[in-house]
Amino acid sequence: MAKIIAGVGCSHVPAIGVAMDTGITHEEYWKPVFEGFKKSREWMKKQNPDVIFLVYNDHCTAFDARCIPTFALGCGVEFQPADEGWGPRPVPPVKNHQKMASHIAQSLVLNEFDITIMNEMEVDHGLTVPLSVMFGDIKQNDEWPSLVIPLCVNVVQYPAPTGNRCYNLGKAIRRAIESYEEDLNVIIFGTGGMSHQLQYKRAGLINSDWDKRFLDLMTEDPVGASQITHLEYLRETGSEGIEMVMWLIMRGALNENVTEVHRHYHVPASNTAVGHIILENNA
Amino acid sequence: MTEKEYDKIPGTIVFDADKSREGYHLNQFCISLRLQENRDAFNKNEEAYLDAYPMSKEQREAVLKREWNLLLELGGNIYYTSKLAANDGINFQNLAGRMTGMGVDSYREMMLKGGRSIEGNRDKSEWGED
Ligand SMILES: [Fe+2]
Predict the structure, then answer these.
(1) pLDDT digits (tens, 9 = 90+) for A27-40
(2) Distance B44 CA to ligand 1 centre (A)
(3) For residues A4 and A186, is the Cβ–Cβ distance under 8 A?
(4) How high is the pLDDT of residue B1?
(5) What is the pLDDT of residue A87?
(6) Which residues contact A282 (CB under 8 A, 6 or more apart)?
(7) CATH for A3-281, options being 3.30.70.270, 3.40.830.10, 3.90.79.10, 3.65.10.10
C-alpha cells in the first residue's frame, strides 16, 4: 500500500524562484535563505519519494476571479509552469501520478470533502518554488525527481477554509493515499507563509515570534494550531499570512506524534518571512 | 454596512466577497495583463483597452493614474493589481514601497531589519484611526 512517510512545510515566495532562475543564490541577500535548504536537499535525496502531494495556492494564475474553488485537486496528466506576467519559470512540467490522483479524488468526495477536479491546469510559483528549494536546480529539459499531485487551496478571497477544516482534510487525504494499493512512498508538502502582508499601508508586517510559535505547534500541538482563527492570522501574521492554513493540511496527514528533523527560519525574502520544517512520521 | 471583525486591523484591506464583487471587472482587467499579447495591446492604447472592461469611472481613473492604494480600496486585490505593476516594471517589493508611502529604499531597509513590527500595528486605535 502507499504510505505517507513525512511532511514538509515551506514558504513559496516567488522571489526565491527568481533568485534560483537567475543564478544569484550566492549573493549576500539570498545566501542565508538557501543555506537553510542544504540539509533539506540531502534529506530529499535520501527519501527519494515516488510521489509528492503538494498543497499550495494559486495566485490568480490558473484561476482568475471567474472561478474560485476552495479545494481543487490536479488530476490531469501534467501541469505546465504558467506565465505569471514575467514569462514562465524555466523548470520542467510537473508530472502527475494520475491514477493515484483519481483514487484520491474519489475517496475525498466519499469522505465528504467535495473537492473540485482539475484535468487541465497551469501551475504558478506556489507549486514550483517549493519543488525548486527542496530538489535544487532542475533544468527545464530534465525531469522533476518525483511525481506530483497538486492540491490548490483558495487563500486569496476571504474566507480561506478554516484551519480546522484543513486539518481534517489532511486526515482524509491520508486515508485516501494509504488505501491506494501500490507500494509507494509519499511526502506531503504544505506551502505558503509565513507572516507577510503584501498590500496597503501595513505592508511589510513580519511577526517572527508568532511564526516560531507556529513552527513549535506544528511539531508539538497540531490540534492547537488547527484552532487558530482567521482573525488571528490576519491581524498577527498579515493579510497574506493566512496562507499558513495550508500547512495544516500537511500536518493533518501525519501522525499526531512526529519527529522534527529540520527547521529553518529567515527574514526577509522580498516581503516575507521564510519558514521551513521537516516532520517525519514516527513508526 | 455591519462592521466586520477584521475592520479594526489598521492599514489592511481584507479581500472578502464584498470586495470581490465590487472589484470584479477591475481585477479581470488586471489579470488579463498576465499575457504578453494583452500587455502589448494595453501599452499601445490604455484607454481603448480599458473600454472592454465595464469597471466604474473611479476604478478606471485609478488604473490610468496608477493609484495603487485606491485600487485596493475600490475592490482590487494585490495579486491582481500586481500584474498591472509588473507591466510597469514594478515588482512586489517596490509596489509595497509605494503603497506604504515609505518609498522603495526605506521599505527595503525596513525589510532587511526584520520587517514591520506587530507592536503598535494590531488595532486602528494604535494608528489614531477608528
Ligand atoms: Fe502564496
Answers:
(1) 999 999 999 999 99
(2) 31
(3) yes
(4) 55
(5) 86
(6) A255, A257, A258, A259
(7) 3.40.830.10
> A–B: how many Cβ contacts below 8 A?
147
B 5-34 residues inside an 8 A Cβ radius of A: 5-6, 9-17, 20, 23-24, 27-28, 31, 33-34
CA distances, A129 to each of A17, A22, A133, B16, B63 (Å) = 5, 14, 6, 27, 30
| Peptide bond just before A130 cis, omega within 30 deg | no
- Helix (H) / strand (E) element for B79: namely helix B78-87
> What is this model's ipTM?
0.96
| Vertex A205 angle, CA A69 and B75, to 5° | 45
Domain boundaries, chain A: 3-281
pTM: 0.97
Measuring CA to CA, which residue among A229, A205, A226 is closest to residue A217?
A226
Give B14 to chain A, closest Cα distance, Å. Answer: 7
Our CA-based measurement puts residue B12 at a distance from the nearest CA of chain A, in whole angstroms, of: 6
- Catalytic positions of A: 125, 196
Bridge-based pairing of strands A51-56 and A3-10 is: unpaired
What CATH class does B16-87 carry? mainly alpha
Residue range B8-66, pLDDT digits in tens: 999 999 999 999 999 999 999 999 999 999 999 999 999 999 999 999 999 999 999 99
